[in-house]
Amino acid sequence: MILDLxxxxxxxxxxxxxxxxxxxxxxxxxxxxxxxxxAMATPSPAKSMGDPGIxxxxxxxxxxxxxxxxxxxxxxxxxxxxxxxxxxxxGYAYAFTKEPECIHTMRRWEGGDPGVSNQKTPTTILLTPDxxxxxxxxxxxDFYHDLDPTESKHWLYLEKFKMKLHTTANLSIxxxxxxxxxxxxxxxxxxxxxxxxxxxxxxxxxxxQAGAEFDNADxxxxxxxxxxxxxxAKQFMREAAYKAGLVPRDNPEQLIIALxxxxxxxxxxxxxxxxMIDIGTKTNxxxxxxxxxxxxxxxxxxxxxxxxxxxxxxxxxxxxxELWSELEEGDRYVVVxxxxxxxxxxxxxIRLPEGHLKELYKASGGPYGSIGxxxxxxxxxxxxxxxxxxxQFKVKRPAAWVDLMIAFxxxxxxxxxxxxxxxxxxxxxxxxxxxxxxxxxxxxxxLRKSNVDFVKWSSQGMLRMNPxxxxxxxxxxxxxxxxxxxxxxxKPEVSDIKFLFLVGGFAESPLLQQAVQNMLQGRSxxxxxxxxxxxxxxxxxxxxLDPSIIKVRRSPLTYGVGVxxxxxxxxxxxxxxxxxxxxxxxxxxxDTFITCDQSVALGETVKRSYTPAKPSQQVIVIHIxxxxxxxVGFISExxxxxxxxxxxxxxxxxxxxxxxxxxxxxxxxxxEIRAMAVDVATSRTVKASIDFLSQ
Length: 695
Fold this sequence. Notes:
Blueprint: H1 20-25, E1 28-30, H2 45-49, E2 54-65, E3 79-85, E4 89-96, E5 102-105, E6 121-122, E7 124-127, E8 133-136, H3 138-146, H4 149-152, E9 156-159, H5 164-167, E10 176-178, E11 184-186, H6 187-210, E12 219-225, H7 231-244, E13 255-259, H8 260-268, E14 276-278, H9 296-308, E15 313-315, E16 332-338, E17 343-351, E18 356-366, H10 371-385, H11 387-396, H12 398-412, E19 423-426, H13 429-439, H14 443-449, E20 455-458, E21 462-465, H15 467-489, E22 497-503, H16 510-520, E23 525-529, H17 535-545, E24 550-554, E25 558-566, E26 577-580, E27 583-594, E28 599-601, E29 604-612, E30 619-627, E31 641-649, E32 662-667, E33 674-679, E34 684-686, E35 688-690
Parallel strand pairs: 1-35, 3-12, 12-13, 16-22, 18-24, 22-23
Antiparallel strand pairs: 2-29, 3-4, 4-5, 4-6, 5-15, 7-8, 7-9, 10-11, 14-23, 16-17, 17-18, 19-21, 20-21, 24-28, 25-27, 25-30, 26-27, 29-32, 30-31, 32-33, 33-34
Helix pairs in contact: 3-12, 6-7, 8-17, 10-11, 10-15, 11-12, 15-16
């Protein structure tokens, strides 16, 4: 089980608030930490840790809203650069703060595939045999492809590696990735190399425009991540950005972590009618009727985009778009972000007159992206040629395997509900040759013997798949998405949905569009923006220009800390009693900061006062726990996990009072968490770090 440690709320946009620099100077830390996944209720964690512990002071907590003091006071940067770091493809876009209505997308990438648009570049990276960065994107893939097989096995080629951050339960700075040749490399290095590449590309383009070297300090950076990512994964991206030199560690507000469906939602507010396809109505829109081929509108949209691509500059409305003007106070809509790795769903409500957004239901989704179709294709190849051969071929001929998957990608995009003619997939010569050496018979013989009726051999050296066979590869992934959507629409918070925005690269699939249309049965209008693959990127730029646009989020989990309370006979379980210096304590008490699915306003702060159980403590350790349940009494309960640590260092300060008061403040409502602590006796702000990545 992978636990969601994301706090749908809390720190990266903190970076946008005017007083965040104060927080950062007071040592708000995001360092590294480990997820503790307990399969069952555990014995007393506090006793096993041997911590002296903390106990709450009365009153136990104060809740306040600091949105006014943290209000966004206008950009202090010249330009906002957003990086959409995708599972399958990536890119960047930017806007100058003086011209926020002009969003510029990155220069055209060199390379490209037949049948695949190159508005972004593949998320592929190549390291030299001595593990130095060589290239990224099309350049990496093409260079790797051209290497001699005897040479290529020494090079480290990686693709689709972003999903590792979602699927790794105990993510840490030491987490490793496997290159195509089977060699292992540190994930933090790969992510840092990729971000450094985008930094170099963007700075070069900005410098060329300015006619002088552009200063990185004048850029606010935005990195997009799936909304369903856990807190360690978000922190990992921030750590990679520090390592890449994107922003300095002592200036964290220069980088914002943006949630992908939120970015899409922000961009969709600006849509004009000619910039979208409406497949949820019975009327013609853009010359396209939903009763015709469901993919026709998308094809038309691509042609429209291709004809406009010369400028690379998108103009967005200063005010809300025409579609948005149909929304009234309290109207609800869903954004479904269908990417390469994950599908993210978020539910927003419009708040007028400013058009601010309120999250109505915590972000949900799962690993249902388009790479699931690639895995199904691989399973089909294993069925025909044997898993032993496919595993061996991937290791021995890694560049040829990449070629085969590129050929499949092009054909995958041609799949449609009404297609009748077969789809041909080129098999690389080395696949045919290596199979004959490996098995002693031909590829054609393997196909005849496999009993896979819907895949035939073509004498031109191609696999010929009938359309039903291709559609079958889509089915498991699309079924997951539709099931998730069905469950979501049954929630009371998700009733009366006016629009469903389908965004992300996978949203271009006519098969997915038709499945969503069939599931909704006209309950909501389905809107697909033109240039759907750039929706998140453009929205991330708008978010960087005004990070306070999302005013209310939902917490995906209950968060709290483990504390000691005075033991009360009859109230507390006997096995929780701990005697220290003659005092009886109840251990493992869960002191709740925020509950699961609680609405949290931007900048909302929860303040707690604690005192060390042992007065002489110099370092006070507070363990942060989370749970999917709303009511949690003890940190040892089933389903409660440790997800972070606050370390309060009071070394060198003397307290004149008997019970030293440590105020701990945690701020929610943003895309990450931030925290600080104050030693009340001396007014000294002590170091506080939430560490989600350390082992």
